[in-house]
Amino acid sequence: MLVARDLLGKRLVRVLDDGTRLAGIIVEVEAYRGVPDAASHAFGGRRTPRNEVMYGPAGVAYVYFTYGMHHCMNVVCGRVGDPLAVLIRALEPTEGLGKMRELRSAGAGGPGPGSRRPGTGHRADTKLCSGPGKLCQALAIGRSLNGASLLGDSPLLIESSRGRPIVDELILTTPRIGIGYAGDWTARPLRWCIRGNPHVSGPRAGRV
DNA sequence: ATGACGATTTACT
DNA sequence: GTAAATCGTCATA
Question: Which one of A39, A40, A70, A119 has the fewest beta carbons within 10 angstroms of its own beta carbon?
Fold first, then answer.
């Protein structure tokens, strides 16, 4: 929770094998509160090969594949045995935009219908990383990074922001997206985004 | 072995 | 607004 809030404004950096740096400011996150949270992959203490890293030490990535075509990335943040995580839902891209566009328009492993059609490569920069699946595609984040450390010298890491701190007035809190099955937990305000930031996911992009 | 279902994105009506 | 794309994962048997 506190971790989720504090992640806003920090920088997510991806260093590709060839040394290319891709990065963006985190502008939207969601907290998944583990065992009691009906929306969490670890609800009720469920522990499987997929979510195993959630039970490990904090500071690593939990990357999973869903809907047969998208990856999502979380920051594991609980103590060992407590499967807490924060889903990164959107970035404001700052470095490597060209490469991101290339990755996002790549056909292989690409998005849904229409992607096979030629000539649909152009996308607005505000849509480059404006969703959990989109940012993983733009930063080439796949299951090979599941369990990878996000600290220090790593192909995927989080840096403290050198810019202005994100004050509370800039933060919008809402229910989480895409978890209508979670009963009482569906409506809980566990999503944080930077108010009005155009890179936030959804048609209204952080405006309310 | 099998079947149901996504912490989504996109295109189309 | 609705629907399609697409497959790994998990529960059930």
Answer: A119
Q: For strand C, is any atom closer than 7 Å to the CB of A19?
A: no
- pTM value is 0.92
Q: Which two tokens stand for residue A138?
A: 């733009």
Q: In the structure, how far is the CA atom of residue A49 from the C1' atom of nucleotide C11, in angstroms?
A: 14
Q: What topology is assigned to A2-112+120-194 in CATH? A: 3-methyladenine DNA Glycosylase; Chain A (3.10.300)
Q: pLDDT tens digits, residue range A82-112? A: 999 999 999 999 999 999 999 999 753 333 3
- Angstrom distance (rounded) from CA A58 to CA A42: 15
Cα–Cα separations (whole angstroms), residue A175 to A8, A76, A171, A188: 16, 20, 13, 5
Rounded Cα distance, A44 and A163, in Å: 39
A116 CA from B13 C1′ (Å)? 21
pLDDT digit string, tens, across residues A134-171: 999 999 999 999 999 999 999 999 999 777 788 989 99
Q: What nucleotides of chain B have any atom within 7 angstroms of a protein Cβ? A: 5-12
Q: Is the minimum distance from the CB of A30 to strand B below 7 Å? A: yes
C-alpha closest to that of A208 among A199, A195, A197, A198:
A195
Nearest residue to C3 (CA, C1')?
A: A113
Give the residue from A146, A88, A136, A148 showing the smallest Cα distance to A110. Answer: A136
